[in-house]
C-alpha cells in the first residue's frame, strides 16, 4: 500500500473552527513525524449527531487514538470518550473569558470509568497530544518509534549550554 493510501490511525477533532489555531499544533507535529491524521470539526453542542456518529464509528474506521480539543464548557473529549473504547487525549483550548481554566477543568475532571488523557491548556497541550498519540502508535510501529526518538534527540541537540 502506498503512503497516499494509508488510512489515518489518528483523528483530531475540535469543537469549532476557532479551535484550529490551537489544534493545528497537533496536526503539524504529526505531519513532522510522518503520521497521517484525519482532522474534523465536531461540536458536542452544535453538531451532537455528528459527534455521535463520529465517536461510535471511529474504531471501525481504523482510528487507534483520538485527539479532541475544545474550549469553555468543553464536553467534547468526555463525550467522545463515553462513546468509544479508543484512547482519547483531551486538549483544553484557551478560552477568552477564563483563559482556558474552564476548558481544563471541564476536560480533566472526568468521573472514574471514562478516562480522558488531558494535556496542558493551549498550543503546548495540542503539540503534546500529537506527540503522545504518536508515542502510543509507536509501541507497535518500529519505524515511527525511531522517528520519534530522532525528534527527541534533535530537540535535545537544539538546547544551547549557555544563553546567547
Ligand atoms: C467550544 O466553544 C469550542 O470548542 C470553542 O473553543 C468555543 C468557542 O467556539 P466559537 O464560538 O468560537 O465557535 O465549543
Summarize the structure.
The protein is of the alpha/beta class and 164 residues long.
Bound molecules: 5-O-phosphono-beta-D-ribofuranose
CATH topology: Rossmann fold
Strand content: 15-25%
Helix content: 40-55%
Named at the architecture level, the CATH assignment is 3-Layer(aba) Sandwich
* Structure summary, number of beta strands: 5
Organism: Novosphingobium bradum
Catalytic activity: 5-carboxyamino-1-(5-phospho-D-ribosyl)imidazole + H(+) = 5-amino-1-(5-phospho-D-ribosyl)imidazole-4-carboxylate
Family: Belongs to the AIR carboxylase family. Class I subfamily.
Pfam families: AIRC
Q: How are the secondary structure elements laid out?
A:
Elements: E1 10-14, H1 20-32, E2 37-41, H2 48-57, E3 65-71, H3 76-83, E4 88-93, H4 101-108, E5 117-118, H5 123-138, H6 142-157
Parallel strand pairs: 1-2, 1-3, 3-4, 4-5
The chain binds 5-O-phosphono-beta-D-ribofuranose.
5-O-phosphono-beta-D-ribofuranose is lined by residues 15-16, 18-19, 43, 70-72, 93.
Commentary on this structure:
By secondary structure, this protein is α/β, with parallel strands linked by helices. The chain has one domain (8-157): Rossmann fold, CATH 3.40.50.1970. The chain is 43% helix and 15% strand. The chain contains six helices and five strands, in the order βαβαβαβαβαα. Strands 2-1-3-4-5 form a five-stranded parallel β-sheet, with helices on both faces. Helix 1 links the parallel strand 1 and strand 2. The termini are far apart. The mean pLDDT is 96. Bound molecules: 5-O-phosphono-beta-D-ribofuranose. 5-O-phosphono-beta-D-ribofuranose (RP5) is lined by residues 15-16, 18-19, 43, 70-72, 93.
Amino acid at each position: 500500500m502506498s503512503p497516499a493510501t494509508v488510512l489515518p490511525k489518528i483523528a483530531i477533532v475540535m469543537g469549532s473552527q476557532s479551535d484550529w489555531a490551537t489544534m493545528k499544533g497537533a496536526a503539524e507535529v504529526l505531519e513532522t513525524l510522518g503520521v497521517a491524521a484525519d482532522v474534523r470539526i465536531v461540536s458536542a453542542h452544535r453538531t451532537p449527531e455528528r459527534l455521535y456518529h463520529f465517536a461510535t464509528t471511529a474504531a471501525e474506521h481504523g482510528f487507534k487514538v483520538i485527539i479532541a480539543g475544545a474550549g469553555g464548557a468543553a464536553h467534547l473529549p468526555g463525550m467522545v470518550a463515553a462513546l468509544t473504547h479508543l484512547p482519547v487525549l483531551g486538549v483544553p483550548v484557551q478560552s477568552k473569558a477564563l483563559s482556558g481554566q474552564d476548558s481544563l477543568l471541564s476536560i480533566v475532571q472526568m468521573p472514574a470509568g471514562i478516562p480522558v488523557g488531558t494535556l496542558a491548556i493551549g498550543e503546548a497541550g495540542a503539540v503534546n497530544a500529537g506527540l503522545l498519540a504518536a508515542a502510543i502508535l509507536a509501541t507497535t510501529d518500529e519505524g515511527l518509534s525511531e522517528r520519534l526518538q530522532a525528534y527527541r534527540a534533535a530537540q535535545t541537540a537544539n538546547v544551547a549550554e549557555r544563553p546567547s
